[in-house]
Design brief:
With 114 residues, this protein is an all-beta fold. 0% of the residues lie in helices and 39% in strands. The protein contains no helices and seven strands. The strands form two sheets. The protein has a five-stranded mixed β-sheet with strand order 1-7-6-3-4, with no helix packed on it. Strands 2-5 form a two-stranded antiparallel sheet. The two termini are 19 Å apart.
Amino acid sequence: MNPAVAKPGDAVTVHAADADCNPRYGQNARIYVSVTDAAGHAFISTTAAMNDAGGFSYQFEVPLTAAPGEASVEAYPFGVDWCDDTGTNNRIRHAEGFSRVSCAARTRPLTITA
């Protein structure tokens, strides 16, 4: 994410490089992006384009009403059953060489200044 500190009106870019593990998300893949300010108000809740390997870039403007403090930025593949808690990859049936990954949500802090 760039920058990690922003004030209302600033542009922030959330991005990720392609994965090395060939996740095969497909040509119409989407990423879900949410941003919640320090007061708990979600001011971004949207999807954006993501490539087949999981790479994406999404830019948003910090709204003038965003509460100062530490906001939370989260992004994950949209519409993909990527964690079914069975230990089996249910997206690619009968595939070998895939291992289970953590289902914990990955968030990044964004410090919003006044």
